[in-house]
Amino acid sequence: MTKRSLILAGGGLKVAYQAGVMQVWLDEAGLTFDHADGCSGGVFNLVQYCQGSSGTQIADSWRDFPILHALSLNWRQYLRLFWAESLMTYDAFRRVVLRGKWKIDWNRVRASQKLGTFNVFNFSKNQHLVLTQDQMNEDLLVAGVTLPMWFAPVTIDGERYLDAVYVTDANLIEAIRRGADELWIIWTVSRKQIWGGGFINTYFQIIEITANGRLREDIERIEANNKAIAAGGRGEFGRRIEVKMLAAEVPLHYLINFKSTGFTAAVEQGIADARVWCRQQGIPLKSPAGNLLGLTFDETMQGGFALGPTDPEQGRQQGAAQGTTLAMHATVHISDLDRFLNVPDHPGGLTGTIDFPPLGTDMPATTGVFNLLKPDDANVDKLFVYELGFQHGGKSYYLAGRKYVRKGGDPFRETTTLYTKLHEGRDTSGPVIGAGVLTLGVEALIAMLSTVRVHNAQNKRDEFAALERFGKFFLGEMWERYGIHLERP
User: For residue 321, what are the contacts with CB-CB under 8 A and spacing of at least 6?
Assistant: First the structure.
């Protein structure tokens, strides 16, 4: 019988994303695990899992996380300047989160039938400890997330305990030792490999070096083991070990965050990514398709356009000279926001009307294609794709437009300029009979933003989280194309 271990890797407060994944894996996919291991921030989710919380309850525990009330400054230490033992304390976190919002019941945790292992470092003995849930208490849990300098070591029976992150941020070997054949890893430590300056960035990048380096070493050991077994040998672990990892870049900082809404967005990102990941793995989900979060918005672009030219710029010039313009009044339909954000082509649907006096006005287009920041064939530029099929006078036409987003280009001009061709027929395979350039003016852009709507949200909180996820995706892509490459935690 195959044994599974759930690896709740560290990642500081980024593990809010991990909780979203747990909602999908535990509740929607119905996965069960023989063992779960938590390191650093992952112990926050592990303790709730051992307490018997469902994946959804764990995800809910991070929504609207009370960050401004959860961490307390160590005022008494600041007067000591360079001799200060820590910058913060966990006093407020214990009171507001562990005993308040999460209501951790240590009797239930210790009596749990779910096997969980917690990683803690005993500084007094220079010893990495792996403790089962029946050995845990609040002090040991807090010790498991106590980063040096930020927090003072936790003293227990005269010995000092800290986060084990510099030893491991995902204890794969412990899971194998406990009989796991499959390791299901949720990884939130950044792997962007972009160095950011400054003391805080440097501190957490040292953790990234340690965590990613150790993870790679362990996975290489597993791969060598599997290769040896495939060749007829015994291998280091005596059996094949399968690694199933979901890794993500989460736009929360490991420690320094000021907005509760960011945690809700991270949870929703975890849910979205996990659903897509499960579909790719062929894992069925219980969530009904009819309740998928969707999003729509309206966009009107217009500009010089003429019949005859096949080059958009020539069509624009000829249209300007002749006084002919084309207006596209489109509604973008994103029926599955989760899929849209996680599939590389970022696909949606398009409907609307076309105004082009040489053919007609208010011509309805009931089918179309939309892609936002789709990679081009050479993966150099990214494209906004707008395609609408319509009929007039018994003939079929297909309007196909592209916005080209180039590395280091002009962001406003490129994202508001649509190079357009008009084809005969039902797709782009038909002959080009006209061309032009459509633009989105400032007034039209403002009008477009006012039309954004979220569909199938259960409440205002989920609606706002969906808008925030969409906005962060778009702005993040814009930063990558046009921004300065600095680490953004």
Answer: none
Q: Which residue has the higher pLDDT, 457 or 434?
A: 434
pLDDT higher than threshold 50 for residue 486: no
With 0-12 CB in 10 A as exposed, 13-18 as middle and 19+ as buried, what is 371? Answer: buried
Q: How far apart are CA 5 and CA 35, in angstroms?
A: 5
**pLDDT confidence tier of residue 275, bands split at 50, 70 and 90:** confident
Determine contact, residues 66/257, Cβ cutoff 8 Å.
Answer: no
Which of 36, 483, 29, 41 has the alpha carbon at shortest distance from 266? 41
Q: How far is CA 213 from the centre of its chain?
A: 22
> How many CB atoms sit inside 10 A of residue 413's CB?
10
- 72-78 long-range contacts (CB < 8 A, ≥24 apart) are 74/152
- Between the alpha carbon of residue 457 and those of residues 29, 39, 389, 453, the distances in Å are 21, 33, 30, 10
Q: Provide the whole-model pTM.
A: 0.68
How far apart (Å, rounded) are the C-alpha atoms in residues 37 and 52?
15
State the DSSP H helix or E strand holding residue 342, giving kind and residue range, or none if neither.
Answer: helix 337-342
Structural contact between residues 375 and 402, judged by C-beta atoms closer than 8 angstroms: no
Copy the structure tokens of residue 239. 């059996």
Element containing residue 3 per DSSP (H, E): none
> Higher pLDDT residue, 157 or 366?
157
